[in-house]
Amino acid sequence: MMKKITVKKMKLRGFWVISIPLLAILSLIYVFQVNAITNNAYNIANLQKETKKIAQDNEGLEVKITQQAYLPNATKIAENLLLEKINRIEYLNVAQGVAVAK
After folding, report:
1. What is the pLDDT of residues 52-84, one digit of tens each?
2. Which element (helix H / strand E) includes 67?
3. Residue 101 near residue 94 (C-beta atoms within 8 A)
4. I want to staple 83 with a disulfide (CB 3.0 to 4.6 A). Which of 19, 72, 78, 92 is the partner?
5. Has residue 101 got a pLDDT over 60?
């Protein structure tokens, strides 16, 4: 006896034959896209850390440049203003019981 395959069973079988591979393909695409997004997020985090480090290094270099540019000029400015180097420091002594000295 031959089994008769009805049109309804053929349509159902065709549906499953098409939908299962399609679902598998879409699942693989989803996995690859999630993997790509994760890798990009990791790379962005690393680049942000590197950018922050470079900015901090840049600030340090700016401070060094400012210090190196200022010190020689400060000496020249002091010489032009006829300032002298301080050898001895003396402080004023205020009496103990005086609140305001006139």
Report:
1. 999 999 999 998 888 777 777 777 877 788 877
2. helix 7-80
3. yes
4. 78
5. no
Angle (CA) 40-41-47 rounded to 5° is 85
Rounded distance between C-alpha atoms, residue 98 and residue 102, angstroms? 10
Structure tokens at 20: 């299962």
Structure tokens at 81: 């203003």
Phi, psi of 46 (to 5 degrees): -65, -40
> In the numeric block, which tokens belong to residue 27?
């699942």
Structure confidence at residue 99 (pLDDT):
63
Which residue shows structure tokens 């400015």? 77
Rounded to whole angstroms, the Cα distance separating 12 from 39 reads 40
Rounded distance between C-alpha atoms, residue 82 and residue 70, angstroms: 18
Q: Which of 14, 33, 82 is nearest to 6 (CA)?
A: 14
